Amino acid sequence: MVSQHFGILLVALPLLAAPVAALLPNGRSSWTLVMAVMTLCLPISLSILGDVIDGELIHYELGGWAPPWGIAYTIDGLNALMAVIICMIGTLVTIYGRYSVAADIPENKQALFYAAYLLCFLGLLGMCLTGDIFNVFVFLEISSLSTYALISMGHNHRALIASFQYLILGTIGAIFFLIGIGLAYAATGSLNMADLAIRLSGSEHTKTIHTAFGFIFVGMALKAAMFPLHQWLPRAYTYAPIIVSTFLAGTATKVAVYVIARSVFTVFTPEYSLKTLLNELLIVFGAIAVIHGATQAIRQTAVKPLLAWSSLSQVGYFMMGIGLLSATGLMATMIHMFNHALIKSALFMAAGIFLYQTGSLRIAALSGVGRHMPLTFTAVVIAGLSLIGVPGTVGFISKWYLVLAAVEQQAWWIVGVVVLGSIMAIIYVWKLVETLYFQPTTMPAAPYGTDHIERNPALIVPIWILATACIYLGLDTGMSVGAAKAAVNSLGLATP
Asked: Cα 455 from chain centroid?
């Protein structure tokens, strides 16, 4: 079966292309190579999802070595959906980057930027597709190191500070994760996740396993920016170049949440999580993250910090969905990861368009700009309504399933948190919409040589693909809900 080899192609293509991109001339040639890689990876990921959505598993054994001795890629509905999210956002961000990189990245660094971008893309895909927990760490380091470089390329000198802060915290997280892997290996003698699950079932009460579980969870929770380990996220998203903020907001935290979900539902099992009270920690800290992130978003005076703190709030929903330890709760998390990737990527892209038109992302400086930029403003409204969770948008589907999961367990206070988080989202989304459309101003000149930035299809087409998806997939839920059900069923959980 040809599709059996597609999983390794998703990793091999960006791996081979990254050094080539670094050697190509700056500008169009390196962008063309990245675009070619994305154009190949997206249909491959969709093909894989189509193959596994009915419950089939795809196995690929590197070098012909069978697990647990060799490294194996095992693809089911869960990681196939994650691969689609990464490839979809990667492709749209690359199209957007045709203009954005030229505007934000010095010309002599553009080839290196694209090389780092491909390595980050490779690392995120590898973390999802591998069935070996040590390889998760290897790909984690690849994505992290490239991310540090990408963030540091921002115009503002504070991008270097943000990158350094993320480097310190990210290194701590990686060390914790590696220690956890080492302890799990010491207790079981295996690194293959499926084999680990079998061996752990007979030794789950040992102190070594308890410690391993704690280190693995804390290390990846830091990468996922789970409250209270979120300090790196607001600075990183705020000061990174627009294209980097967009890509990270759509993919990075989702992949870390995936690794946590894989650990909880596959390697250590939900029953073990119940015994360690992990579920209660996830739910409580998730609820705090929803409220704290929304509160901070309301207080912001610039667009990127507002969106960054909003992302922290959305991570809280992921945490609560996993913490419920149910099929419906995990479905809610998977659906929201897919939907939030659409929403937040669209909003960060819109922020970039406003920046290129006005030269500023201070909310006060954008007064009335929406009336002069109707395409971008309308996309902001659609994505904003989706973020709130208005019926008919993708955000409503996510929160509906989270509410269902909470009602199943009679956790009515979680329903209250979801409602309160949505109300608070109305406040900060309206704050942006009101300034953009209802405040008087004259149209400012564009700092990058054009008075009509919306005429650039490289900027407008990706954002409108995302905005359209926010409506279409909110009305026709077959794709997202079907993929999430396949993901949950692949873990042996019965979906409603």
From this structure: 29
Q: What is the pLDDT of residues 224-243, one digit of tens each?
A: 888 887 878 888 888 888 89
Q: How far is CA 62 from CA 51, 69, 119, in A?
A: 20, 11, 20
| Residue 67 to residues 71, 74, 259, 297, Cα–Cα distance (Å) | 6, 10, 20, 46
CA 5 to CA 59: how far, in whole Å?
A: 9
What are residue 377's phi and psi, to 5 degrees?
A: -65, -45
SS3 content of the chain, % helix, strand, coil (to 5): 80, 5, 20
Task: Give the tens place of pLDDT for each residue, 165-216.
Answer: 888 888 898 899 899 888 888 887 777 777 777 777 765 567 878 888 888 8
Residue span of the structural domain in which 384 resides? 329-496
Percentage of the chain with pLDDT > 70?
89
Total number of domains in the chain: 1
Bridge partner residues of 192 (DSSP): 132
- Residue 423's contacts (CB-CB under 8 Å, 6 or more residues apart) are none
Phi-psi sector, 151: left (phi>0), alpha (psi -120 to 50), beta: alpha
Q: Is residue 339 part of a domain?
A: yes
* Average pLDDT over the chain, rounded to an integer: 83
In-domain check, residue 354: yes
Is 459 part of a structural domain of the chain? yes
**Token output for 255:** 């992949």
- In sequence order, the β-bridge partners of residue 61 are 72
DSSP secondary structure, 217-237, as one string? HHHHHHHTT-TTS-THHHHHH
Indicate the pTM of the whole model.
Answer: 0.89
Max Cα distance, the chain (Å): 70
What sign has the CA pseudo-torsion 218, 261, 383, 418?
negative
CA distance 12 to 16: 6
pLDDT of 443 over the 60 cut: no
Of the candidates 233, 241, 203, 204, the one whose C-alpha atom is nearest the C-alpha of residue 293 is: 233
